[in-house]
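A brief tutorial aside. Many learners find it easier to grasp structure tokens once they have seen a single protein encoded end to end. The record that follows does exactly this for Hydrolase. Read the sequence first, then the structure, and try to relate runs of similar tokens to stretches of the chain.
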Amino acid sequence: MRALVFHGNLQYAEIPKSEIPKVIEKAYFPTISELIRREIPFGLNITGYSLSFLPKDLIALIKEGIESGLIEILGTSYTHAILPLLPLSRVEAQIKRDREVKENILEVSPEGFWLPELAYDPIIPAILRDNNYEYLFADGEAMLFSNHLNSAIKPIKPLYPHLIKAQRGEGLVYLNYLLGLRELKKAINLVFEGKVTLEAVKEIEAIPVWVSINTAVMLGAGRFPLMNPKKVAKWVKEKDEILLYGTDIEFLGYRDIAGYKITISNLLEIINELEGELGLPRKIKHSEKKLYLRTSSWAPDKSLRIWTEDEGNARLNMLTSYMDGELAFLAENSDARGWEPLPERRLDAFKAIYTHWRSENGKH
């Protein structure tokens, strides 16, 4: 059995706030409605904060999918915060608020938890278990590299460096792309099937999310050069008990990749090429593997550096570490610190910090 998960975050770092209605129209509605129409089961992970932007008819459609057993709602942090960068009280506040909103709006209590940016540390499973979560999603490639725990001694090298260079437009782009496809295929060969048990402060089951599988599926669905649905299906056909797609819903119908547009219809072409059952994520079988997962994310080098090393990010992280209460949620939003954040997204966090500081000090 294979599964699909669609991750939705309307605080997306690179998407202007004015575009939110268009994102809902172009990505959320067509994807969710088409999957339900075709009776294809899937996991849906929309941040609790993002739910407040969804129109009533879309909420009703999602609830219809839940009631029919086609949609498994997943928990996450309320404002897509990077949990390993927060004080533990704020980690739990983010987890609790997201669950409360989903119980209130969607009338469901999630069992699985999607880590924003798959950012993980070994304390998070304990807090999730304390809050009635049964399993989480974690980066599969980080699992492969977790026999080395100190990246200062042995840095993690990306599995497909040429493809990353091509995505960035570096060097001879087409040559890097060709070399990157070879690297990507080799990376897919490293994928193992099924859930694992993570050794952590409290053990928890985890479904690996494989960036190599996601990337291949997106390249094939977008019909990038030398890639198409049949080729991707051939690459992954031997892999069962995996997430076939586990990334942003915004890539389907709204955001292009290097000028190539992906739609839910393109994704369904790959599914049609593959034999085998599609099911809800929670039904993925256990591999009987048990392992320790290092503090990591799904960044190419599996680190948290994208959200920490930039001066603006460092400043935000320092200032939010002293915050609590409602405004802290907006300040903690990861997309103020994202891969390429828009100024308005970053300013939202700084404004929340300033307002909190003024109110805490009785100033106007």
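Self-check: The longest strand covers residues 2-8. If you spotted this yourself, you are ready for the next section.
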